[in-house]
Structure prediction request, 176 residues.
Amino acid sequence: MRRDVPQDSVRRNEQIRAREVRLIGAEGEQLGIISRNDAIALAKEKGLDLVEVAATADPPVCRVMDYGKYKYEQQKKKQEAKKRQTVVQIKEIKVRPKTDEHDYQTKLKHVRRFLEEGDRCKVTVFFRGREIVHKDRGLTILDRFVEDTKDLAKLDQEARAEGRTLQMMLAPIPKK
Prediction:
């Protein structure tokens, strides 16, 4: 790790390497291209820091500002962005082709709750033994789930067979 660049990779004051910089004042006004030392002196005179805003520009763009305040605002923006992120989980419900009505209703209630919470839901019909011959029963159950949740969900992934299972994915309809 290089010592002249701080952890957050924003150069300030003496860490700026360029001889000349395009300077932006504390209120956002353009001060033109001046030498780095003059810019640092100007910033120190105002009790502020010279912060490199755009290092790739030619000459680099630097701004006179309070570095501590700038760093604090960047941290707040990062926290706010992190807060707005939503983690979508995939919940799975497993049923069998011989699932009775009451059990189906219970599973349906769970699927509806998952979708209301904003999670995607994978519905899996798994077959045992010779049940695999009756894939049509599994497809009927999956179609019934789609029909019973059409007010909350859209079909995200069509029913597909994988080994001894039939699977489909339901995604919640975005709320307006």
